[in-house]
Amino acid sequence: MRNIPIAKPLIGDEEINGVIEVLKSGMLASGKEVEEFEKEFAQYLGVKHGIAVVNGTAALDVALKALRIGPGDEVITTPFTFIASANSILFQGAKPVFADIDPKTFNLDPNEVLEKINEKTKAILVVHLYGQPADMKAFKEIAEDHKLYLVEDCAQAHGAEFNGQKVGTFGDIAAFSFYPTKNMTTGEGGMVVTNDDELAKRADLIRNHGQAEKYLHVELGYNLRMTNIAAAIGRAQLKKLDGWNERRIENARLLTDGISEIDGLTPPYTDPRVKHVFHQYVIRVEEEFPLNRDELMVKLGEKGIGSAVHYPIPVHHQPFYQKLGYPNDICSNAVEASKKVLSLPVHPAVNRGDIDYIINTLRELGTL
Ligand SMILES: Cc1ncc(COP(=O)(O)O)c(C=O)c1O
Predict the structure, then answer these.
(1) pLDDT per residue over 46-66, tens digit each?
(2) Are residues 204 and 250 in the same domain?
C-alpha cells in the first residue's frame, strides 16, 4: 500500500553540507551565515531588510512590537488561521478583532474588515492562508485610507505573489515561518521582513536583548536569534523554493482536474490575480458526499493517504479565546469552513502515481 504523508520536508546534500560547514567552523550561534540568509531571503522577496528569528510566532511578535502595538490597541485579523496569528496580538496586550473570511478563498474578507474599523484600530494583520495571497490591493487601500499599519503573516506563503508582487512586500512589516512542514524550512525558524529602516532596526533590537552595542541595552528585548546551523539549512532551501513551488502548483492542478469530476468535493478556488503556492491543497467536503469530512479522513488514512484539517476550530472558538469572552456567533463563514475543509497531500514529494492514487481513492469513496 502507498504511504503518502500530508507533509514532508526535503533535505538534500546541500543542507547537510551547509550544516557540516557551520559545525566545523565552530560558529554555531547567530553570525555570518544568518546575515547571508537574511540578505538572500530579502533579495528573493525584493524587500530591504530581513531579520531572522527562532520561529514564525516570534517573527509575528517582533513585527508587532516593532510597530509599538500595545494595550488599548485593536488589530483586525482572521479567526481562520493557526492560533499564533491571533496570539501575537494578545502578546502585545492588544485586542484581536476578528473579521470573517471570504468562503471561496478562505482569506480575510476586506468588506468584513472595513466594518470592524474604529478609533482603537491600529493595524490589520492579514494571513495568506494555505499559500494563497489575500486581496492585497483592497487591504493596501483600506490601510492607507484609514491610516492603519498593514502586517502580513506569510508563514504559509513563501514565494506567493499578488499581481506579480511577492507577499511580504505589501505591508509595513511581515513575518515568515520556516517550520518543517512549510514550503521551505530551517528546522524551526522565522523571518521578519520590512522596507522600513526604523522598523528593521527595532526588530533587530527586540530579537537581541535590545542591544545597540555590546552590553548597551536601549530597549527591552529577548534572545530570539536564529542559529547559523538553522540559517545554513535555510540558505540551501531557498535555492530550491521556486522549483518546489512549481511542483506544488502542478500537483494542485492535477488534483483539481480529478477532483472536479467527483460530486460532493469542491476543489480550492484560486484568485486569478495571484500565484498560489499551495502550502496546503484544501478541498471542501460537501453534504452530498457519501462520507462526512471526518469519516473521509479516516478512510483515506486506511488507504495510506495522509490528510489534515486546517483548522478544525476557528480561533474565536478556542477555549482560551472563549475565556476571554469572544462570542461564538461571529464569523459564520470561518465556522462553516472549519467543518468542511480537508487538506490533501500536495507537497513536492507527491508524484504523479500518488496523485492518480489519491483521485481514484476519492472517486471510489464517493460512490460507496
Ligand atoms: C499562519 C501561521 N502563522 C504563524 C505560524 C507560526 O509559525 P511557527 O510555527 O514557526 O512559530 C504558523 C505556523 O505554524 C502559521 O501557519
Answers:
(1) 999 999 999 999 999 999 999
(2) no
Q: Got the DSSP string for 85-96?
A: HHHHHHTTT-EE
- List pocket residues of ligand 1, CB cut-off 6 Å: 55-57, 81-82, 84-85, 127, 153, 155-156, 177, 179, 190
**Domain tally, the chain:** 2
- Structural domain harbouring 161: 13-99+106-236
CA–centroid distance, 323 to ligand 1, in Å, is 23
Question: Ligand 1 atom closest to Cα of 190?
Answer: 10
Among 236, 271, 293, give the residue marking a domain's end. 236
pTM, whole model, 2 decimals?
0.98
Backbone angles phi, psi at 208, to 5 degrees: -135, 60
Residue nearest atom 8 in ligand 1 by C-alpha distance: 56
Letter for the amino acid at 254?
L
- Cβ atoms of 83 and 98 within 8 Å: the answer is no
pLDDT tens, residue by residue, 72-109: 999 999 999 999 999 999 999 999 999 999 999 999 99
* Grid cell locating 5: 504523508
CATH number at 346 reads 3.90.1150.10
Of 201, 236, 271, the last residue of a domain is 236
Nearest atom of ligand 1 to the alpha carbon of 279? 16
Distance 110 CA to ligand 1 centre (A): 22
Cell of 346: 500536495
